[in-house]
Amino acid sequence: RELMLISHQKSIEQLQETLRQKLLNDDNWREKIEAELAKERARHLVEFEEQALLFKEEAKLELDIEKEKHQEIIQKYKKEQEELQTKISDLITGATRELRLEVATL
Question: Which of 47, 60, 82, 88 places its Cα 20 to 30 Å from the Cα of 41?
């Protein structure tokens, strides 16, 4: 009977030790998972910031291209306006000359 008690006592001690080891392993496992999670979050944050910067650069480039197109259109219309102003001036000068000639012939 005493041997049986000693055997049970040793079994209980072994089970307690096994449980203690498992609890320690669980704590280590949790710490490892949390550390891995923190690394992944940091990596994703860096990727997100890089992507945001890339989108900003692309948007700026597109805006610059649009601005350049609009500047070209504005220059085109300014040139057309100057040409029309010159044409109007020439037409007025020509009409005035013709009118003076008509008046002079009368």
Answer: 60
What one-character-per-residue DSSP string does 74-106 give?
Answer: HHHHHHHHHHHHHHHHHHHHHHHHHHHHHHHH-
Per-residue buried b or exposed e for 74-106, using 16+ beta carbons within 10 Å of the residue's own CB: eeeeeeeeeeeeeeeeeeeeeeeeeeeeeeeee
Distance CA 2, CA 6 (A): 6
Give me the DSSP letters along 30-41: HHHHHHHHHHHH
Alpha carbons within 13 angstroms on the beta-carbon side of residue 88 total 6
Residues near 105 by beta carbon (within 8 Å), at least 6 away in sequence: none
Question: What six digits make up the tokens of 88?
Answer: 């109007």
In tens, the pLDDT along 72-97 reads: 999 999 999 999 999 999 999 999 99
